[in-house]
Amino acid sequence: MLTNLQARDVETLVHPYTNLVAIRETGPLILERGQGVWVHDVDGKPYLEGMAGLWCTALGYNNEELVDAAATQMRKLPFTHIFGGKSHDPAIELAEKLKEMAPVPISKVFFTNSGSEANDTQMKLVWYMNNALGRPKKKKIISRMRAYHGVTIASASLTGLAGNHNDFDLPIAGVRHTTCPHYYRLAEAGESEEEFATRLAADLEALIIAEGPETVAAFIAEPVMGAGGVIVPPKTYYPKIQAVLKKYDVFFIGDEVITGFGRLGTAFGSEAMEMQPDSISIAKALSSAYQPIGAVMIPELMYEAMLTESSKLGNFGHGYTYSGHPVAAAVAVKTLEIYERERIFERVRAKIPQFDARRAALEDHPLVGEARGKGLVAGIELVADKKTKHQFDPKLGMAAKCVAFCQQEGLILRNVFGDAVTICPPLVISPAEIDELFDRLTRALDKTLDYAVRENLL
Ligand code: PMP
């Protein structure tokens, strides 16, 4: 029986990434307020937000400094755009700070409202650059199976998940997907991580050659795949991939939308993964999700090409009304100040051993095939048979069941492709709360196991 608010919800809202039929019966969980790493529903029940919302609320749910930064900017100048020669202090300060923090040499910053828009912009900038460089055929972009880069037409095409393509008539032309770097599922018997990485680089090279290197413009990758199931690439992966990209003059786009700002214990995930992208997409923790904002960090080579091309055309014809929105930019500036002042990334590093130990221990559970992760992000893959790695029928939705049991236990997690449950708490989670998170998840896994036994699914 739906509550009044739930009934009003299902009569009016189309929810993103939701089973549109099931929600009409169950109604949504309606949240009302937050405190630290906790959120409360309308009945006052607290939940540990083990996913930081959608991998984004790095500083938790009641940071007054961020609220003040927004309110102050709103009172001063709630909006001005940065088109056609206008600007404002928060956008300038934020761009300066990002250039300073970037893990690779960055020349300029272009602001967006989201990660999807950042990756869309990346694709357009690569095309624009190659037109300027006089190689109009070099336009294809290579992504990876199970990558997640967003949902706009271009970024959903880069995403390597069937659910984002089927019946949306995607991917668009000129996008290819190479092998997913998932050792647990895709390594051959006896193959070491290093050998697997060599094979993945060979797969990429074969694809570039098959397509024609003169047609391949860029490769895009998340340091650690997020929504595709938290896939940590095998050792030596990026150095080997980067050697191939260099050989064929293929631009490297880093998608740090999840891994940017401390998630892996370093400011950027690139630093933790021996990854040296040419350009970088960011969003989410850039503002700790208190305001929607994303950005593309642009290297000098690309900027020079943009100058050339736009001077031919008289204008750089790309930008969003809210690119560099002053309130979002002011909140992001404050967020970066807090990361630095509170030494948030260093404190994340101190929490990793405990998080790692609790994560690894989950592999003792009868339903857990692989408990993988890096830093404060993890993917727990459920299997029907640990020895054979045999999965449950996807129609059974076992990871979704587990997430529902988590919710009963007062823990919010998410289920993603490949029957995995993902964990990505706010960076400010305390050691006691890390234990609480894994205790609650373990109880939910036990309930999932009881359910599987009861229903004869094993
Ligand atoms: N890239 C990555 C790596 C992401 O995880 C996401 C969102 N989960 C996006 C891009 C898209 O970001 P947004 O939802 O803000 O458009």
UniProtKB/TrEMBL annotation:
One GO process term, biological-process aspect: biotin biosynthetic process
Single GO MF annotation: pyridoxal phosphate binding
CDD domains xrefs: OAT_like
Gene3D superfamilies referenced in this protein's UniProt entry, alphabetically: Aspartate Aminotransferase, domain 1, Type I PLP-dependent aspartate aminotransferase-like (Major domain)
Keywords: Aminotransferase, Pyridoxal phosphate, Pyruvate, Transferase
Pfam families: Aminotran_3
InterPro entries (alphabetical): Aminotrans_3, PyrdxlP-dep_Trfase, PyrdxlP-dep_Trfase_major, PyrdxlP-dep_Trfase_small
First and last residue of the signal peptide: none
Keyword Glycosyltransferase belongs to the record: no
Stated family: Belongs to the class-III pyridoxal-phosphate-dependent aminotransferase family.
Entries under PANTHER family matching the protein: ADENOSYLMETHIONINE-8-AMINO-7-OXONONANOATE AMINOTRANSFERASE
Protein name, entry field: 4-aminobutyrate--pyruvate transaminase
Taxonomic lineage of the native organism: Bacteria, Pseudomonadati, Pseudomonadota, Alphaproteobacteria, Hyphomicrobiales
